[in-house]
Amino acid sequence: MQKVKESVKGLKAYNANQVPFRIKLDANEGKNILFKDISEGLSFGEDFNINFYPDNDAVLLRKEMGGYIGISPSNIIAGNGSSEMIELVIKTFVDKDEAMMSFVPSFSMYSVFSSIYSADFIGVESNEDFSLDMDLMIKKAGEINPKLILICNPNNPTGFLIAKKDIEKLLSEVDSIVVVDEAYMEFAEGSMAQEVLKYKNLIVLRTLSKALGLAAIRLGYMISNEEIINIINNVRSPYNLNAVTQYIGAMALRKKDEITGYVEEVKKERDFLSGELGELPFEVYKSHANFIFFSSGIDDLDKRLKEDGILIRSFSGDLKGYYRVTVGSRAENTELIKSLKEIVKNEK
Ligand code: PMP
């Protein structure tokens, strides 16, 4: 594939020797001397051997991911959070001094990874109301011809949702690898995950850290056409995903009804919290994710909330005075609003 970095072109995927065996003496693994009962206690089943390397292909997990998304497991790679997936894509496609683009503001790690890999990060400004102008992205991409375009949809930190037709327009106009980071897509509509086979250059990223509430197990995945999946598999580290995460992830993805129920609850709370924030002298932006972005005109709002034991996300530079708050439970949201009202009252 043309877009792949020169240094990656000749690579082959790590060959994990995963065949049935009677005696396993091929991978220098130690014996399980410390936790003899671990599989029993956690009901992991007989296949769970803590002393053997995990399934390098995460077969069972990817099957569940495929079922969850409605796509073949051969179009999926799983890894340590979508963070690892972002890094893997950059590692595969973007060489030193090559350009990668995204809207700004967006997920901060895009430009951080760009720096780490000595790439040239180009941010395309949002509109004043933090809506995103895809025609402007297409125009800039036409001028710069970046290796990679990262689209966070819904966007972190603003919660703005780009319509699916606009993403399709971008894909029809550019030749770059387009990554759509759908970390928060369960809370919105318009996933591109089932469209990956239509395009030669589309990668969709998902995570279990948000709608599935499993940030601690570090599990994310990418969905793309098989050509891209095969290339990225050549770059992926051997056994990148631990067995415990593979197991819990597979169990979790079967619980679709519970996930849908939780997402509905968050959306309801999002409406409640947006309404309540809107009653305060704040500018509140419509969110399609599990957080709300707002500006308050109070520079140290986060510090004052912290004194009351409440943490929200603050920003610096152009976004000083803007905040992002995760939608909590009704009790948490009510406490937050109570504290904010107090701060606003003292501000007068
Ligand atoms: N993408 C976006 C847009 C995010 O907001 C986050 C987490 N804040 C991530 C990716 C990373 O998520 P994880 O590594 O937990 O899957």
Task: Give a summary of the structure in a few sentences.
This protein has 348 residues and is α/β, with parallel strands linked by helices. The chain has helices at 38-41, 59-69, 81-93, 109-116, 134-144, 164-173, 226-235, 243-253, 256-279, 301-307, 330-347, and strands at 76-79, 99-104, 120-125, 148-152, 177-181, 202-207, 220-224, 283-284, 291-295, 313-314, 322-326. The protein has 2 domains: 6-254, Type I PLP-dependent aspartate aminotransferase-like (Major domain) (Aspartate Aminotransferase, domain 2, 3-Layer(aba) Sandwich), CATH 3.40.640.10; 257-347, Aspartate Aminotransferase, domain 1 (Alpha-Beta Complex).
What does this structure look like?
The protein has 348 residues and is of the alpha/beta class. The chain contains 11 helices and 11 strands. The strands form 2 sheets. It has a 7-stranded mixed beta sheet, with helices on both faces. Helix 4 (109-116) links the parallel strand 2 and strand 3 (120-125). The longest helix has 24 residues, at 256-279. 37% of the residues are buried. The chain binds 4'-deoxy-4'-aminopyridoxal-5'-phosphate. The site of 4'-deoxy-4'-aminopyridoxal-5'-phosphate (PMP) has 12 residues, from helix 3. The site of 4'-deoxy-4'-aminopyridoxal-5'-phosphate has 12 residues, from helix 3.
Kindly state the number of beta strands.
11
CATH superfamily of the largest domain: Type I PLP-dependent aspartate aminotransferase-like (Major domain)
Relative strand content: 5-15%
Largest sheet: 7 strands, mixed
State the order of secondary-structure elements, H for helix, E for strand: HHEHEHEHEHEEEHHHEEHEEH
Tally the structural domains: 2
Query: What general outline do the C-alpha atoms trace?
Result: globular
Quaternary structure type: single chain
The helix tally amounts to 11
CATH fold descriptor of the largest domain: Aspartate Aminotransferase, domain 2
Q: Class of the largest domain, according to the CATH hierarchy?
A: Alpha Beta
Compute the gyration radius: what is it?
Answer: 22 Å
